[in-house]
């Protein structure tokens, strides 16, 4: 009877599921073509030294300019790309585009030696034996030092910890590329496990800091998480900083580095160049508000 109930239930959902599946199949086909047609582009969100507002690097974030559907954000197509394996092409494109952009900035401006570009990788990319070779080649061909690149991998991707993933992490580490755990605090990985991996930085998820300025308990909790990350020999970056209060609270805790709408939204490459060139700190203050009233 239970089996029958299950069957009739799944039948009731069928049209919706069929539609969703068909939609995803169309999107996948369009994405496969879009990669070759230059429909993808990157936005760059500044990563900031909290104490000074200096931009120490950027995170490359993918967008899809669809010819008919308009601008599509990654949350609406990355999972489709992952299900279909298209993420491998997308990921290769992202890495190459981000490094080529850094090469342009290097040619154009005097980049600080510690300036880094962060690129997000899906779990599936980490499971490929040819990932490291691809990274090595992309660095060599763009002439970018490995130390300028940080690979961001979401926390949940570490939980499986398969052999190939381990090989990828160790080889990237040996290459001199930075490895970062993204969205830390949303998965179930233990810090003692992460400590044994070649991971250099931990990006603390936005959900952990959203309430710190309103909730002293949460602030204390984030303080403890930060202490744990440091005790594990890693550096913390805090994402999703939306207010001055949050930035100030994190600074008081001794946190050094962060990212979020308070400092800057994701920018075009030209806007990043303008900030680097002028040496301006973030957030950008409007000239009228900053100018003395005389
Ligand atoms: P993520 O790597 O955790 O990136 C941070 C996301 O939070 C970005 O959304 C960013 O625009 C947004 N964000 C930044 N500051 C704030 C803030 O102060 N408040 C709020 N509410 N949000 C903020 P975006 O660009 O839509 O990217 C979403 C996710 O898509 C990323 O999360 C990442 O997991 C994935 N993604 C983006 N680009 C790529 C890529 O090239 N490859 C892969 N595999 N995944 C990517
Ligand atoms: Mg990220
Ligand atoms: Mg993140
Ligand atoms: Mg996140």
TrEMBL record:
<keyword id="KW-0175">Coiled coil</keyword>
<keyword id="KW-0812">Transmembrane</keyword>
<protein>
    <submittedName>
        <fullName>EAL domain-containing protein</fullName>
    </submittedName>
</protein>
<feature type="domain" description="EAL">
    <location>
        <begin position="24"/>
        <end position="280"/>
    </location>
</feature>
<keyword id="KW-1133">Transmembrane helix</keyword>
<keyword id="KW-0472">Membrane</keyword>
């Amino acid at each position: 009877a239970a089996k029958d109930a299950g069957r009739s239930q799944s039948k009731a959902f069928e049209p919706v599921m069929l539609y969703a599946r068909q939609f995803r199949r169309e999107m996948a086909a369009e994405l496969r073509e879009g990669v070759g047609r230059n429909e993808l582009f990157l936005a760059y969100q500044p990563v900031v030294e909290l104490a000074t507002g200096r931009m120490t690097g950027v995170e490359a974030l993918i967008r899809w300019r669809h010819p008919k559907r308009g601008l599509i954000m990654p949350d609406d197509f990355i999972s489709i790309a992952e299900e279909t394996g298209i993420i491998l092409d997308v990921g290769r494109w992202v890495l190459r585009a981000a490094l080529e952009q850094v090469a342009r900035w290097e040619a154009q401006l005097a980049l600080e030696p510690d300036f880094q570009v962060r690129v997000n990788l899906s779990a599936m990319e980490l499971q490929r034996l040819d990932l490291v070779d691809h990274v090595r080649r992309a660095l060599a061909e763009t002439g970018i030092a490995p130390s300028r690149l940080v690979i961001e991998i979401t926390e949940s991707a570490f939980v499986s910890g398969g052999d190939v993933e381990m090989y990828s992490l160790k080889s990237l580490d040996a290459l001199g590329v930075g490895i970062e755990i993204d969205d830390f605090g949303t998965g179930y990985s233990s810090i003692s496990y992460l400590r044994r991996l070649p991971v250099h930085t931990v990006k603390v998820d936005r959900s952990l800091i959203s309430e710190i300025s309103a909730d002293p308990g949460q602030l204390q909790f984030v303080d403890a998480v930060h202490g744990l990350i440091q005790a594990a020999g890693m550096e913390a970056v805090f994402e999703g900083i939306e207010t001055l209060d949050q930035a100030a609270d994190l600074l008081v805790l001794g946190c050094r580095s962060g990212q979020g709408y308070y400092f800057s939204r994701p920018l075009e490459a030209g806007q990043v160049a303008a900030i680097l060139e002028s040496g301006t700190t973030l957030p950008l203050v409007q000239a009228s508000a900053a100018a003395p009233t005389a």
